[in-house]
Amino acid sequence: MTVRRDLDFLAAQGVLKRVHGGAVSAMPSGVEPPYSLRAQAAIAAKRAIAAAAVEHIHDGETIVLDSGTTALEVAKLLHDRAVTVMPLSLHIAQELSEAPRIRLLMPGGEARKGELALVGPLTIASLRALRFDLAVISPCAFSLDAGLTAFDLGDAEVKQEALAVAARSMVLADGAKWDRAALAYVCPADRPDLIITDPTAPEDQRTMLTQRGVLLEVAR
After folding, report:
1. What is the rounded distance in angstroms from the CA atom of residue 180 to the CA atom of residue 22?
2. pLDDT tens for residues 162-179?
3. For the segment 30-40, what is each residue's pLDDT rounded down to a tens digit?
4. For residues 134 and 123, is the Cβ–Cβ distance under 8 A?
5. How far apart are CA 148 and CA 139, in angstroms?
6. Domain coordinates in residue numbering, the chain
7. Alpha carbon of 157 to those of 137, 150, 182: distances in Å?
């Protein structure tokens, strides 16, 4: 019922079209759905994925936390953790600003309108100056063929750099993002060390990824 409500809500906003057995995107690959809509979509799945993700985060670690809406759900669960975090979003920076045990490192960069994701050469330079234990990436779309993709070219570049400067990577992608592609390429589907998804992600594609050596976890 939760999935149906999410689909009905997004269909009413013109983001997707309902079809028999599910839905298909009604937006071109170069058009980014509004942040406010994405923040409300598949919220139960995102929270389950976030809860699974924080189990892989250890006190004392340094983390670069992506700008996606699922990454925001991760931030909400980190308030009492003793970790160092560089958020790639002002939404997430605000969420963590009062967390008593978190060391918050802010990158430079330009905040994208509405998204408040940090992009541009100052953000890239901030990432290149540091090394992280973990990059937590929340892509806009995910596909075995197209890999991880983003709607914005600057956002894709920042995600690439975050992956490059981290010892290990964790990708958070609910089932609604699977088998889709956006405009800007980030990395191959088997690049992440760990992918966390939910039961709505296509089972055959999950199996193919594990056969490629990717550690995949289904949050319930």
Report:
1. 14
2. 999 999 999 999 999 999
3. 567 777 777 77
4. no
5. 6
6. 1-29, 32-218
7. 12, 9, 14
